[in-house]
Each structure stands twice: as structure tokens, then as C-alpha cells.
Amino acid sequence: MSVTTEPISHPTRSELELSAVLHALSDPVRLMIVAELAKNQGEYTCGSFSLPVTKSTCTHHFKVLREAGLIQQRQQGTSRLNTLRRDDLEARFPGLLPTVLQAVPDSAAVAAVTA
Amino acid sequence: MSVTTEPISHPTRSELELSAVLHALSDPVRLMIVAELAKNQGEYTCGSFSLPVTKSTCTHHFKVLREAGLIQQRQQGTSRLNTLRRDDLEARFPGLLPTVLQAVPDSAAVAAVTA
DNA sequence: TTCGTTGTACGATGAATGGCGTACAATAGC
DNA sequence: GCTATTGTACGCCATTCATCGTACAACGAA
């Protein structure tokens, strides 16, 4: 990708805010992303999700998720690898992520990881 | 209050949507309201919360909470009594409400029930 | 009946949001 | 070196959102 030499910044564990996290999760597209990341452990490129939006909108959603502290992004070559910040979330808001994920409707599973 | 003869409508249990619930909870003011309602069992008038916003903004937030299915509103005289829809939420999204409430910072408790 | 209380309705406003297209930067591969 | 891939940046747009002020409706109490 590009990164334009800007370092990828993430909030620290203690900076995580409940409102921000809930807001990040309140969008269906972002909920799909998180649900997919949660389903399989590991790192996934942005492009590996088949989302119902364009590339640029995707970038936007990943940015929101990152800034809210839900995901970690790491640059590798031209792609950006995404990981769920399970541990940090669990430490700050115990049980929140698993509970929300359990409530995600299966219809959101349409966002299958294609790669 | 007024009600203007409009009946108060609520979504049914099966109509509750995760995104809407999370969105409703993603605002600090609404989170305070819900936290306060959760702390004490029972019905509370809108005016019994000391919130950092004006009356009209309050009305707005209570409406959002009601339309998302988080609270139940019942008219009694000039006031409107609010209750948390614990059972419905628990049935539809098990564990969600308790988990979120547990994550609410104490600073939100500033919104004390005055009456 | 006349206030005072409680809360809604409506309209305005500024900020944020989600969406898109285009341009381009960085790297991988040929 | 050239090209394809991956993803960001930026600008634009329409919509939603949180907030407020004012007006007013409904009811209780004096």
C-alpha cells in the first residue's frame, strides 16, 4: 500500500474508550470485519475481506477500527496486516468483545474471508 | 409532559438490532442514563437524571434509547417513566448489557439520580 | 381558573459520518 | 525498468447526529 511514510498509530491499552469502541462496533460493515477477524486467529490483509463497499471506504472503516483500538495494523510490503486486539480489549473491557461477537447475526458472516 | 396524543412506540423484542443497540450505547450521555437505570431497579422520570444537557437534548436521547429498544417509556400524568428493558435485551443479546455496564467508567456515575 | 412542572415538537446549526472516485505512493514480480 | 497490486490521501457529497432555543401541550396543585 502506501502509508505515505506515516507511522501507523494506535491507542494504548489504557487509552481505550468504551464509547469509541461501541461506536466503532455500531456500524454493520465494521462489525463484519471484526467478526471475521475474530473467527480466525491471525493476521489478515484489508483486501482479504469481501465487503460491500469500495476500497476507499474500506480504508476508512479500518482506520476507525484502529483508532478506536479494536485492531492492530502492521505494514508488510504493500499490504497491511490486521489483527484483533483481543488481549487489550479483554483487559480493559472484560467480556465485551466475546459478548458482542456472540450477538452478531449470521447474516454478517456473508463477509467471508476470501483469501 | 405532552405526548401530543401520540402513542409511545417501542420495537418488539425480535425487532431489536445489534447495530442500533450499540449505537445507542455509544453516546456518553446515553450511557450514563442506561447506567443509572441499571443501578437501581424501577421506573425513573426523565427529569430525575442530572444530565449535562438541556431538556430538549434529553428528550432526544431518551427517544434514541427507546427506539433502539433499550428502554421502555410509560406515560403517567405529566411525567414519563423509564425502565430498562433488561429481559428483552438479555433474551436477544445474552450478556451484552451486563458486560457493557461493567465497562462503564465510574466517572459516568456523575449522572446521579437526584429524585 | 391560573400557575408551575414535565416533557415533546419543531426548526436551526455545526460537526461528524459513510460513501464514492481519482490520484498516487510503495512494493512485488516480470 | 515497467507494470500490477495494495492500500492511502484527498476532496466531494448527502445524511445523520448532538445540541440548543422557543413554543406549546398535558396535567397537578393552589
Mean pLDDT of chain A: 88
Element pattern of chain A in H and E: HHEHEEHH
Uncertain regions of chain A: pLDDT < 50 for 5+ in a row?
A: 1-5, 111-115
Please report the distance between the alpha carbons of the first and last residues of chain A: 17 Å
Report the radius of gyration of chain A as a whole number of Å: 13 Å
Query: Quaternary arrangement of the chains shown?
Result: homodimer
Share in helix of chain A: 40-55%
Helical segment count of chain A: 5
- Beta fraction of the residues of chain A? 5-15%
Q: What overall form of chain A do the CA principal axes indicate?
A: globular
Class by alpha and beta content of chain A: alpha+beta
Overview in brief:
Chain A is of the alpha+beta class. The first copy, chain A, is built from five helices and three strands; from the N terminus they run H-H-E-H-E-E-H-H.
Explain what the structure shows.
- Chain A is of the alpha+beta class and 115 residues long.
- Mean pLDDT of chain A is 88; it is low at 1-5 and 111-115.
- Chain A contains 5 helices and 3 strands; from the N terminus they run H-H-E-H-E-E-H-H.
- Helices cover 43% and strands 12% of the residues of chain A.
- Chain A has helices at residues 18-25, 28-39, 55-68, 86-92, 96-103, and strands at 44-45, 71-76, 79-84.
- In chain A, strands 1-3-2 form a 3-stranded antiparallel beta sheet.
- Chain A binds a DNA duplex (30 and 30 nucleotides) through residues 1-6, 27, 29, 45-47, 53-64, 75, 77-80.
